[in-house]
Request: fold
Amino acid sequence: MTQVIDADEQRALKEVAAKVALERYAPHAEEWDRSRTAFPHDERRYLGELGFLGIALPERYGGGGAPLQHALTVIEELAKECRPAAFQVFESNTGPAQVVARLGTEEQRERFLPPIIRGDATLAVAISEPDAGSAATDLKTKAVREGDKVRITGGKRWISNGSEADYYLVYARMNDEPGSKAIGAVLVEADRPGMSFGQREKLMGFRGIPSADVLFDDVVVPAENVVLGPGRFRELFGAFSIERLGNATMSLAIGQAALDRTVRYVQERTQFGKPLVEFQSVQMSLADMVLQVEAARLLIRRAAADFGDGLPNSLEVSLAKCTANEMAKKVTDLAIQLHGGNGYTEEFGLERLHRDSHGWALAGGTPAMQRIRIVSELLGRSFDQRR
Reply:
């Protein structure tokens, strides 16, 4: 089902988000990156007051009930200037909160969604483990039912917002069935006894978005916290496709920001007595940047438009994410080249865009894994990577 988008409403939202990004967050983005400062809680609540954290979540829990495209518009505008700010909108509108909204119980939605939408709390997804990154079905963390409770043991790695989030949507093995058959998901509050966190990773990019191991030492939660039991792994990863659309939009924003800065620069900077843009080699590079950015934008737009209350078309999402991730790396690299020596400085901000572009390409399924998914989804068959 294709959603009907109110173009005027989306345009107004874009203008507000762009103004907030430029006036409120752009002045702090570089410093937050340099100091690896986590996004301030007061600022998250401010985004909640603006309604940004619940744009695409149901109205009955405090959200806006708007199409996903509206949330992607806000993510893009914020991410052009400050990825940590955009991450808050990404996590609530396209991340694990969407899993709860679409697959969780009514009690779970009533308990967890309102504080997330207000900005009082955050929910992180915990899938990856030391030996289960791209091979997600190899995860070993266990969530075992014991009467009316669930006991969780194990550990997660590379968890974005790890140690910072208030709740975690934990993918875990719930019985002894092989592969994906045993995997389900359970909500775990960060203050449960037995919860602990590793040191925050010192990443190349993502510096305002904490990443840390999340450890579960006999953590007990009520059985009501189980979102999906074993045997429904396909549904879980179908919902995860929404997060991959958010990821693609973060990459789109990075590419668009690099393009915008380069368009200005090549018209202002002169060499050999004329603006850089008058050199044919510069024109060729600039044209390649535009082609790649717009291709990614159209693929994201198609994937986001082709579903309503259901789940996205997995092939369309894989095409959009892979294209956007690769685009952001290439376009930021071209931007650095066209800026010459200035592009290699921190002052012009391109190195920050380039560092972050690699992070978003790794998160949520690398371009290599996306290519495998593309062929699998195209042919309607799976491929065993273990043989």
Observations:
- The chain is about 50% helix and 15% strand.
